[in-house]
Amino acid sequence: MKFVSGRELEQLAASRVDKAAFDYYQTGANEELTKQENINAFKRIKLHPRVLRDVSVIDTKTKILGYTIDLPIGVAPTAMMKLAHPRGELIPAEVCGKYNIPYTVSTLSTQSLSDIRSINQNGIRFFQLYIQKQLYSNIFQRSKEATLALVREAEENGYHALVITIDTPVIGKREAEERNINQFSLPSGAKLEVLEKICKKLNIEIKNEADLLKFRQDQKDASTNWNTIKYLQKETKLPIVLKGIMCAEDALTAKRLGVNAIWVSNHGGRQLDTVRATIDVLPEIIQAVGKDYEVYIDGGIRQGTDIIKCLALGARCVFIGRPVFYSIVIEENGFEKLIALLKAELIKAMQLLGVTKIPELTKDYLVPKL
Asked: Rounded to the nearest 5°, which phi and psi values hold at 185?
C-alpha cells in the first residue's frame, strides 16, 4: 500500500490490524488532548528560509553519545511489535542498522536482545528500561532485583546505552485500553521475550501469557526517585539516558547528576493528559541545560519539517514511535519506506531553508524565535 507522508499512516493502518492492538498503540490518556497537542504544536511554529545559498550538497550526519549517525532520527521504544508483524522488532532493527540510526529496544520486546543484536550487529542499539520492583527467589534465599537483571542482559548483548523511562510510576488512564482489557492478547506463539527470560533467571513462575502481562503491569515501581538513578549509575558503565523529562528543573537535576543525555517525552500523551506538547517544552529545557548537553525528543513527529523544528530548537536527535508500528502494519517493508521518506523530506526541507548541515539549524530559522 502506497503512502507519501507519515501523516497518513495511522488511518491506513487502522483497518489492517486487530482493533485491540491498534487501540493499544493509538490511544492516549483520558481525553487525549496531549496526544493531539503533540502534533498541533508543530503547526504553530513557522520556518524562516534563506535563499541564494549553495544547497547542492546536504550532510544529515550528527553525533549522539559519541556515535556518528547518518540521520538525526531514531526509533523510540515500541512495545510488542509482533502485534504488527510476525518478525516484530527485527524489522525496525534491521532497517536502523542499514540507515545507521539508533534503535531503542523496549523492555516489552517480543524478540530477544540477542536476536535483535544479531540482525543489527553494526548498529547503535539502546535498551529501554522500566524500573522493576524488588523480587525474591526461594532458590537463592536472597533478593534478586529484576532491574539489574535487565541491565546485565543489555550489557552482555552489547547494547550501547540504557534509556530509563521515568514517567511511569503508575500507568496513565488509557480509556481505549480499559475497554479492550479482555480482548487484548499477543499473537499465537508470541512472548514478551526479554521479560520472560528475566523471570526464568529469577525463578518467577509464569504459567501463561496472562501471568506475564500481569507481571508487566504489576512491576511498575512508584517509589522510583533520583536515588534510584544514582544507584544505577554505580551499577553500570553504560551511558544513561533519562526518558520522560518535561521541565527545566528535572533537566537540570539530571545534568547535575551526570546523566549522559535526556529525552524530552510525555510518553506520546499516554500518561498525564493536558501536559504541554514536547516541542513546546523543549526551548526552556535547552535554555536550562545549554546547547552542548545532549537532548533528544519524541512526540508528534510525522514529517521532515517537524524534525527541522526540533533540531533548530536544540534537540540533538528526534525519535519516532507510533509511525514505526503503523508503517509495519501496512506492509513488511513499510518502515524502510518511512525512513527513506523522512530522509528525503529532511533533505528537501534543509535545501529550501538554505542550510547544508545539521549544526547550522538554529532558532534563526524559526518564527517566532523561541
From this structure: -160, 160
